Model the fold of this input.
Amino acid sequence: MTTLTLPRWYDLHTHFRQGANVAEYIADHLAMGCAGALAMPNTKPPVSAIVGPKTESSWSIEAYREDLLEAGADAFDRLIVPLYLTRDTTPEMIAQGAASGLLEACKYYPPHGTTNSEHGVPMGEWIGGGVFRAMEEHGVVLCIHGEQHALTGSAYFDENQTAESVFYTEVLPRILEAHPRLRIVCEHITTQEAVDFVEAAPSHVGATITPQHLLYTVGHLIQGLRYHLYCLPVVKFETDRAALRDAVRKVGQSKFFAGTDSAPHTTKATECGCAAGCYTGGCAPQLYAMAFEEAGADLSSSEGQDAFQRFLCSNGPAFYEFTPSSETFLLEKSPSRTESRDLPEGPVVALPEGMDLELTWSIG
Ligand code: DOR
Ligand code: ZN
Done:
C-alpha cells in the first residue's frame, strides 16, 4: 500500500460560512490534515470591514476571524480572511488594514455571478482606481472570481466561449497592464484560457484549482443532472480539464496550488434553481490524489510525489509568503467513503457521495 507522509497542507480558498455549522466545517478541514485556510468573505452579512463589531450589514475581518477561531480554527496555524470588495471599500481602508496586519487579501466577486455575490462591484470600476493602487503598494493579494458578469445565456456558456474564458482573455490582461505589481490569485480556474493566462503571467500571479475541476467535465454534471457537482465556475470540457491536469503536473511548477472552494449548502436544489458549491470538507486530499492519478501521475514515485506536494502543501504558502507547516499527515492508498451528515443547520452532502464515488485514498 502506498502511504504518503505529507506536510500538513493549506486550503487557500474555502467557505466556512456562519452559524452553528461552522465548527463542523472547520473540524472536517482539520480531520483531513489541513493546517490552515483562507476563509471566503461571502458570508451573511459579508466580511466588508476590517475592524469593529459585526453589524446587520457587515462583518469585519477582525470579528469574523474571532468567531472562526472560537469555532475551532485556533487549531490552524494560519487563517486568512480576505476583505470582500464592495462599494464601501476605500484606499484608506486598504492602507490601514495592511498596516494593522489584518488585511492580507481582498476578494473580487462578479456582481450576482455566484453565491452571495450581490455586493460585488464590476471589475471595470476597480481597474486603474485607488483601491487597486493601494493594494499594489501594500502588497495585498487580489483574489479573483474570474467570470464575466451579466452575460446572456449563449455568451455565458457556449462551445466557443464561457464567462471565464471571456474574463481571462479580455479583462485580466487589462488588470495586469494597469497594475503590474498587483499580486493576483486567479481562483478556482477551470479553462484552458485561464491556464494559458496564468502560465504567461509574472510570478506574482498564481491560481487555485479545485478537486472537482481536475476530476470532472460538464458531461459528468449533465449525465443524470448530478447537481452536487454544480459549482461556479461550472465544470468545463475535456480540453480544459486536460490543461488543468497538465498545469498541476508540470515539473517544478510554482504557480498552481490547492484551494478547494469547498462550499457547503444545506439545500442544493431549490424551487428556483440550484445552489452553486461542492462540499469537499474531509475528503479533499483524497480527491486531489485521485485526480493526479487520473492525470497520469504515479504517486508512488518521487516525481509524482514532488508534483503533488508542491500543489497541495508548498506552492500556496510560498505565494502567500508564510512558512509551511512542519507537521505531517498520512495519505494512504486504501478505499474510504464519505457520508452525508445531519448538521445543526441541516444536512450537507459531500461531493463523493453526491457523485456516488468511492474514494481510493484515505487519511491515515
Ligand atoms: O460554487 C461556488 N460556491 N462558487 C462560488 O463562487 C461561491 C461558492 C459558495 O459560496 O457557495
Ligand atoms: Zn469560493
